[in-house]
């Protein structure tokens, strides 16, 4: 359980500490007060770029007129039970450093280790058009759902992406007349086939678990989605093919696509081009055609199914980060969301401009007013 969040030169905060206990936290305050910045800080306690998809450089505090961000740090104190206190930290040591480092109890650790302590899951206003927006964002969203339950998936995807970049560099060098080393190309494609097949298997099994979670939530006032994965490798994984067979298909596809990729300067084939598809079940229409309110409700239902799944599978606690979610929900769904968060005994951090949107949570949540970089606990 998180007991404190401390920010140093992070975004609009010079220095601030948010102390919390079990249960939901409501962060309310005017536009630009720094509410989302707090959620972003919490979202950094999992591998990746956090809920804004921002770079480490953007996160450093900048005073007006300062060109670059400062060195910054975000720290979390966790109560590990039995009086155990765990300190997680992330940040950059010098202004302009591109890579944030992660520390666990003072020791530098690979970001994937964070998943042993905490599993943040978030919904932001950007996801209001998740199903109609760019495919790459949707796949990233889905991959985060996958690796929260299967930490190895984060490393698999990043190994795949690294090999993909190297292969493209080789191919485009080749297109410019320099000879691509065929042995190196083969080795990279083998790596791509292996990691791609592993990623596809992990995605297919997460899809199955999430769909089961969604189906089990039929009695909730949220719309249901029928999920699917497009992509040759995922299609094979869903239909039960084994990892070696999928790897062989990916490898062949990579070899076939060499010329096209070199000419286009992009990698046109492979599981990085797969997509999460969703059908709005009651309407029997693609989720992409839905209004932003409908898409948001589908995403929230998916996220709640994910949280229930993570809780039931054991492991580190899920933490829910909801940026301006209540504003998009009608009163009925809002009340159901709050009741569910309380019933699940979740640590949830929710933002909104008005405390009144969270009235149903009075007495059941900690309310914190955020104003100009200051945090004022109320109850
Ligand atoms: N690197 C930075 N250095 C200093 N200030 C920053 C930095 N990045 C963002 N900010 C400031 O943080 C503020 C935005 O904070 P945030 O997005 O958390 O607001 P919010 O309370 O969520 O607002 P809204 O209700 O509009 O969503 C802006 O005033 C912005 O200028």
Automatic annotation (TrEMBL):
Protein's name according to its UniProt entry: DNA replication and repair protein RecF
Organism this protein belongs to: Brevundimonas goettingensis
Stretch forming the signal peptide: none
Entry keyword annotation includes DNA damage: yes
BP GO annotations: DNA replication; DNA synthesis involved in DNA repair; double-strand break repair; SOS response
Main localization (coarse): cytoplasm
Recorded GO MF terms: ATP binding; single-stranded DNA binding
Protein role: The RecF protein is involved in DNA metabolism; it is required for DNA replication and normal SOS inducibility. RecF binds preferentially to single-stranded, linear DNA. It also seems to bind ATP.
Gene name of this polypeptide: recF
Database matches in PANTHER family: DNA REPLICATION AND REPAIR PROTEIN RECF
């Amino acid at each position: 359980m998180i007991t404190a969040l401390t920010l140093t030169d992070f975004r609009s905060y010079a220095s601030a500490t948010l102390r919390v206990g079990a249960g939901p936290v409501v962060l309310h305050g005017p536009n630009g007060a720094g509410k989302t910045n707090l959620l972003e800080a919490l979202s950094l306690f999992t591998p990746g770029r956090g809920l804004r998809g921002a770079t480490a450089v953007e996160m450093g505090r900048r005073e007006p007129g300062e060109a670059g961000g400062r060195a910054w740090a975000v720290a979390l104190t966790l109560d590990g039970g039995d009086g155990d206190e765990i300190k997680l930290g992330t940040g950059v040591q010098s202004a302009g450093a591109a890579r944030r480092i992660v520390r666990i109890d003072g020791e530098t650790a690979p970001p994937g280790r964070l998943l042993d302590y905490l599993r943040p899951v978030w919904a932001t206003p950007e996801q209001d058009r998740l199903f109609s927006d760019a495919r790459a964002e949707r796949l990233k969203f889905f991959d985060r759902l996958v690796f929260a339950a299967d930490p190895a998936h984060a490393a698999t995807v990043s190994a795949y992406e690294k090999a993909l970049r190297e292969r493209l560099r080789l191919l485009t060098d080749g297109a410019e007349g320099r000879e691509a080393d065929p042995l190196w190309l083969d080795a990279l494609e083998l790596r791509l086939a292996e990691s791609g097949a592993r990623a596809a298997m992990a995605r297919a099994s997460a899809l199955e678990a999430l769909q089961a979670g969604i189906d089990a939530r039929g009695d909730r006032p949220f719309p249901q989605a029928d999920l699917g994965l497009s992509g040759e490798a995922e299609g094979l994984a869903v239909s039960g093919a084994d990892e070696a067979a999928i790897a062989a298909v990916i490898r062949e596809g990579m070899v076939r696509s060499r010329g096209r990729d070199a000419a286009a300067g992009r990698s046109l084939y492979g599981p990085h081009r797969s997509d999460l598809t969703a059908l709005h079940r009651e309407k029997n229409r693609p989720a992409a055609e839905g209004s932003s309110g409908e898409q948001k409700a589908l995403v929230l239902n998916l996220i709640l199914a994910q949280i229930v799944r993570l809780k039931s599978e054991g492991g580190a606690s899920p933490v829910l980060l909801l940026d301006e979610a209540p504003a998009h929900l009608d009163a009925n769904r809002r009340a159901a969301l709050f009741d569910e968060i309380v019933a699940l005994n979740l640590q949830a951090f929710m933002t909104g401009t008005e405390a009144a949107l969270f009235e149903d949570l009075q007495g059941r949540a900690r309310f914190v007013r955020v104003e100009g970089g200051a945090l004022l606990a109320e109850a």
